[in-house]
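Continuing the series of single-chain predictions for the mutant panel. This is the parent chain; the variants come on the following pages.
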Amino acid sequence: MGTAVVILLVRAITITPSTGSGGPMVSFAQQKLTVKKATVHDLIRIGYLVRDFQIVGGPAWLNSERFDIGADLDTQPAGANFRQAAGLEMQEVLKTRFGLRVHRETRQLPVYELTILPTGPPMRRSNVSNCPNFTMNRRQLEPGDMPRDCTVSISGPNMQLNQTLDAIGMPVTGGSEDFSSLAAVLSAQLDRNVIDKTGLKGLFDIHLEWNREATAKRTTDDYDNPSLFTAVQEQLGLKLESTKGPVEVLIIDRVENPLTPQSGSPAHR
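Parent structure:
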């Protein structure tokens, strides 16, 4: 049996239009949820623990209008279930103030299958025997440095173009969070589900370097700037193959802008 997730009571919510630029910022501190520069699309992704490609439907303003949100909580989320508990509170904000109604479906969508290359280098097994939870290392590692046990770091000389993944004790698959497994990391980078077909069990120490621009363009790679597809083959001995498979998606049935006067009750505003 898993540890129960404590549902926190949202006592007061304030919403204002955001004038900031850049990506969203979300924090939970001193029993307060603070959101800056977030679209409703961002809030749905965080609240329901889904990726961009899993969100279907909704009006255009979901991806354009940004909000600053403050919510007072009865309890501070903490522990291993922090992200799930925080997500439930974000769902409460979306339901009560944005009128959000959703349902889930399974659809056949493009996915990647991760397989083993018979002639590729073997994956390096870890000396770590158990990693129930990863710690995300936010600092850039020094050359030759490695994260400690059960830690994952994504860094690089240019975080927008060249990236490096270093992980100790990471499984190939398992878990839904972006850094819970190699398949989850690849899925987050490629914005598409990655299905593990390797059959590899256990934990691995992983070092992977790739270029995001080459990945996006799927151009011919040079040695110093491989795409993620080439890097996975040459550095891990694995292969990403495009196909179609079942993907759970979140369908937006209704959503309202809390800062816009409402009339009637259309499904999407």
